[in-house]
Every structure is written in C-alpha cells, then in structure tokens.
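Following up on my earlier message about iron/sulfur cluster. Here are the inputs again, as you asked, copied directly from the submission form:
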Amino acid sequence: MLTYPTQSSLTEEIIHNYKMNKTLDTAEICHLLSHKPKEEDQLLFTASRDVTTANVGEMVHLRAIIEFSNVCEADCLYCGIRKSNDNVERFTLPTEQIVQTAVEAMKQYPGVLLQSGEVQSQAFVNRLAEVVKQIKQLALTNSPLKENFRVILSVGELSQNQYKQLREAGADRYLLRIETTNERLFKNIHDRQSSMNERMTCLQNIKDLNMHVGTGVLIGIPGQNLFDLANDVKFFKKIGADMIGMGPLLPAKGTPIGDNYNAQQVLKDIHSENLFDTVKRMISVTRLMNPKANISATTAMEVLNPESGRVEAIQVGSNVVMPVMTPIGDKKKYYLYEGKSNVKSGLDVLKAQITQAGRKYDLTKPGDPVSWVERQK
Ligand code: SF4
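Thanks, got it. Here's what our run produced:
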C-alpha cells in the first residue's frame, strides 16, 4: 500500500534536508511559509534559531535611527509620507540638529541610521555627504568605537556617482528595500518611472562600492502569494544581502492602499491566517537561506503585535533592533504607517526585550554583518 508523507513529516523532512544541504528549493520554502500546526512551525523556528546562534552568535545589535526629513519626491501607494499625502506636515532637520542628535546617539549606540524620503537632487546629496563627514569626524572623539562607529543611510534610489560620494564621505552601510521581487506587484505599489530592475541596479551599485548592502520586502501586499515570498527569500541570497528588514504592510491614512485596506482580504491573500505568523516564518526561512546576514526585528512587527512582536522576531532569527531617536516633535510626522510613532524603543525597553528573547546585547562592537566581514578576507 502507498503511503504519503503527513504534513508533519514533510516539514521534518525539509528541515532534515536543509541541515544536509544548507539550502531550500522554492517548493520547500513555500511549504515552510505556509499555515501549519503550531508544533510544525516550532520545528522551523527552532532550526532558524540554531542557525542564527551558529552563524552570527547570540548578540543582538542596536543602531539608532534618525529620521531627518519626511520630504519625498516619490509617491509609493502604501507609504504615509508619499509626496501626495497632504495630511502630512513636512519637516527637514537642519544639519546641526542631525549631527547633534547623532552625537547623542553615539554615546549609547555603535551606529546610526539616517533615514529620509527620496530626494534625488545633487544639493540634497551634497548636504547629506557633509552630514556624514561631520558625524564620522565627531565619532573619533565622542564614540567609544571611534573609527568603527558606523553610519548607515537609507534615502532611496540615487545615481552610482551619488552613492560613491556618500561612500567616500564615510557611509558604511546602505538600506534600500526592494519591497517585492514580483514585477507586477512592484508596479502595483509604485507610482512612477522607477522600475524593479533599476532598484536592483542600485543595490548592485551599492555592493560594488563595498558598502554593507541592506534590502527587504513588504509582506501582505494585496495579491502577493507564498510563491512571491519564496522568490523574495531567494533574491536575498542571490544578491548576497548583508542586512535584511522585512515587515508587514500596515495601512497609512491618505494612501491608496491604506485607504482601501481590507485586513481580512490581505490575510486571505497571503495564507488564510495571521499575518504576524507569516512574517515570523519569513524571518525564519530567510535566516536558513542567509545564515550570515543581519536581520532586523522591525518596528512594524511591534505594531502588529504590541505584546511580543520584537521578542518573537528575535527568537526566530532576527539579530538587529533599531531604536528611534528622531526628535520627539518630528517623530509623529515621519508617518510611514498607522501606529508607528507609538512604539516604545528606548534603550531600557530594547534591552529587556532582547533578554526576554533569550539573547544578549553588546554596545561596544559595530556588529558588522558576518557576510560582509567574510567578503573582506
Ligand atoms: S516608500 Fe520611500 S520612496 Fe516611497 S513614498 Fe515612502 S519614503 Fe518615499
């Protein structure tokens, strides 16, 4: 008599094969991402936690985020600070305030992420390069890490020469989310001439400059399925991403997607149950496929599950958290999605969450991605 593997044994078999071959094919990734009984998910989560410990260790790294401007020339359909969202009050911090906030950050944290909307003018890049230079200079006397204090940028798509200028000014890392590797979905959530291929070219340009390359995706895009997510995970591996950030798509008022957000439909589209669990599985599978990358526990996870969003992300494979140090008056104006500005991310809160997740923190080391460190050998 023919017997077929049960769901349980299929999950076990996939994890077993992964341990032998250190890779997963598309069908295996789809199965691991799919809705399963809790005990099967647990097999996946245990495997990804073990892979995290073995490859990047037990430390969770912290970097402060300074959101220095919510002015954006783009009009992404999901994003609360898209240029046509008139509900948002725009701000841009003066150079001195960005630098001063970074100096405060460097007394506690080993790196700072400067984030803004996308502005492609040369004047914007010149000013940002000046900010980066000043921060790196001041780190020599104000940060215990001195020249190892890291500056990370996330300001969107720029030209190769502009990335080069920022690298030469001292930027160490660059985050540019691909958002989705399905070209149709990419077009559905972006307004303009920008294409997925152009964004991929930007990522390659960043890599060619030997910056730490960060990317990531949105989970819960209307029409997205597990096959799309499996391709996203394979893309991270293909480009050798050093840093990966993934979060659920959360609605923002004043955006086409946010104003039509039907949470139930989005959940059905993805996998017929809780979006939070799908993101957790994505973190797990991404860790299996990218053992040496840094993977962040995003603020959006905490919004989706205020009880334990970050903790659970860390438990299944995330090893980076990012406290927000945007000046309090402007924090609410950096309105990417509903609920973001309410998330607590002070150092004490994060230390407690890391400990609760059974991990450790070390504020004395830059926490460079192991994947990047190994590329330098
Ligand atoms: S996602 Fe980025 S580029 Fe798009 S509108 Fe928002 S800030 Fe601008």
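One observation from looking it over: The CA atoms of residues 96 and 362 lie 29 Å apart. Hope that helps, and feel free to reply on this thread.
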